[in-house]
Amino acid sequence: MSPLTELLRQATAHELRAVASTAFAQRLARGEVDRTRYVRLLANLQALYAELEWALMWNRQNPAVAPLCLPELWRNELLQDDLRTLLGPGWYASAPRQDGVAHVERLGLLCDEAPGLLAAHAWVLYATDLPGAGQSGAGIARALGLRGKEGTVFLRHATHLDGAAYRAHLLDTLDQLRLDEASREALAEEARLAVRGVHALFEALGRNLPMAREQRERVRSGGWWPRPLALARGMS
User: Fold this and answer.
1) What InterPro entries does its record include (predicted)?
2) How many domains does the chain have?
3) How many whole angstroms from its chain centre is CA 167?
């Protein structure tokens, strides 16, 4: 029997590639995201991580959940710091988090009815390479006129602790869970749902994106569409 984390990796490979292929994820990687969409991303992720971390703590007496309560990996406070920088002290009231409502509601349901499945969401949100997370944040900082690390703490995964070591510990913890085949498959399906939730968020953020910089340059240079005169000659 393969380790649980390998099962989860294989089960979500297609969905994770789909997230990375979204227009918004590609713009984020290049640091070409406007302030409004960047704030929407952080606000929806903050709601998501806050709900997951609350659910894990609420169920910390559950033997299937207790080993997953690793505050060293948690992201809610990092995202709050970024949103406070971008929106000011009243950030919570003005943070646009409607794009992730269904995903947050799913976590609330699991918290009450199936806490064991929270492990799948912990794996997705802390142990996979989601777009944007882990980058230097320099491109976003330049694009938005931010100073130093302010506003990009989440992207940089800034922490005084060894995040890589705790991530490895989480993976090892998941692999040590004693689960029957049905429980393993249920976690795999839940992990797919979790990644699809992230994909839905990135798709929403990518709607009506303005033309990318390289596309604008192609249009200006005449390399994007065939020139009308050339078309007319080809038809004559």
Assistant:
1) Haem_Oase (IPR002051), Haem_Oase-like (IPR016053), Haem_Oase-like_multi-hlx (IPR016084)
2) 1
3) 16
